[in-house]
Specification:
The protein is an alpha/beta fold. The chain has helices spanning about 35-45, 55-75, 95-100, 120-125, 180-190, 205-215, 260-270, and strands at about 45-50, 80, 105-110, 155-160, 160-170, 195-200, 220-225, 235, 240-245, 250, 255, 260, 285, 285-295, 300-305. It is globular and about 70 Å long.
Length: about 300
């Protein structure tokens, strides 16, 4: 089988970014420079904690309890979380977004539940030209219709490190949206930052894995969200993009993807209308820690975390 990097027949396949000369990935370094290179290797280290779908009050509480120790244990520089289920499983409200930012989350991504709480529309419009306000650091999928409220990409700095976050939604077994692959192309080309994380909020594993390969070498990480079930396929792809199909939910596992199990089982048995309510037991925080080189944006490692 031909490697994907060679390009699909008739379809130009974007080439990965080249590592800068002088970085630890550059094989031309000589022995006399080794010590300095090692020092710069550690100085250039950036660690990103990405937290999977925060579900309801149980999810918010465990983030509040565990985030400080996770940041300390893993020497985390940047915290990103998917918050689409923060409001009792359905959407996110302005006060809850503010609450998550106050806990130390830098950027919140979302997905198909973003409009469940209508007041979030007003929150998006509060950005009012401030490129780094909380309203701008809450994202909705970038491949939604362009004239909808909010944005799907954010670029900022943490300390002196420029970074970008892109939020996309899949199209397989989900509502129709623009092509996430080509939207990703456009957004990546518009970013200055080397450190770029993509949250691919999608149902189909094949669509998420395909996006990982498609963006390999052009972004630091492609992390999957939405299914609420963590997958065990985390790895760094050959050109330096960290990848996982689904980070998993941060919330109650004593249910069905966050909802009381008896309600969902009943729905499968009789298909009668039912109001879903959040489960409450076996609360876990699911996340990944990605380490990368800030000068190239290339990932060095990705580690799954469940607490
Ligand atoms: Fe979700
Ligand atoms: Fe979702």
């Amino acid at each position: 089988m031909e490697p994907l990097a060679a390009g699909l027949k008739g379809v130009p396949f974007p080439q990965p970014r080249k590592a800068r000369a002088g970085c630890p990935h550059d094989s031309r370094r000589d022995a006399s420079a080794t010590r300095g290179m090692l020092e710069s290797y550690f100085e250039a280290r950036v660690r990103i904690l990405f937290i999977g779908d925060i579900f309801g009050r149980p999810g918010r509480i465990i983030v509040k309890e565990k985030l400080p120790s996770l940041v300390e244990t893993y020497s985390v520089d940047l915290v990103i979380a998917n918050g689409e289920n923060s409001a009792a499983g359905f959407g996110i409200t302005p006060p809850l977004a503010e609450e998550l930012f106050e806990l130390g989350i830098d950027v919140i991504t979302t997905g198909n539940h973003i409009w469940d709480k209508r007041e979030i529309i007003d929150f998006f419009q509060m950005a009012d030209g401030n490129a780094h306000s909380p309203s701008r650091r809450l994202l909705r999928p970038a491949n939604f219709a362009a004239d909808l409220p909010g944005r799907g990409v954010y670029e900022g700095c943490k300390g002196k490190v420029p970074y970008g976050v892109i939020n996309l939604q899949g199209r397989v077994f989900m509502a129709s949206n623009d092509d996430p692959f080509r939207v990703a192309d456009q957004l990546i080309n518009g970013l200055q930052a080397k450190v770029i994380l993509v949250d691919m909020h999608a149902e189909a594993t094949s669509e998420k894995i395909s996006l990982g390969w498609y963006l390999d070498g052009r972004v630091t990480a492609v992390v999957g969200t939405h299914t609420h079930v963590p997958t065990a396929d985390e790895r760094v792809l050959p050109n330096g993009t960290a990848y996982i199909t689904d980070v998993g939910m941060t919330g109650p596992y004593d249910g069905v993807i966050g909802v009381k199990k008896e309600l969902v089982v009943g729905k499968f048995l009789n298909n009668m209308p039912v109001r879903f309510e959040p489960a409450s037991g076996d609360v876990r925080l699911c996340a990944v820690v990605i380490e990368c080189d800030e000068t190239t944006g290339r990932a060095r490692s990705i580690e799954r975390v469940m607490v």
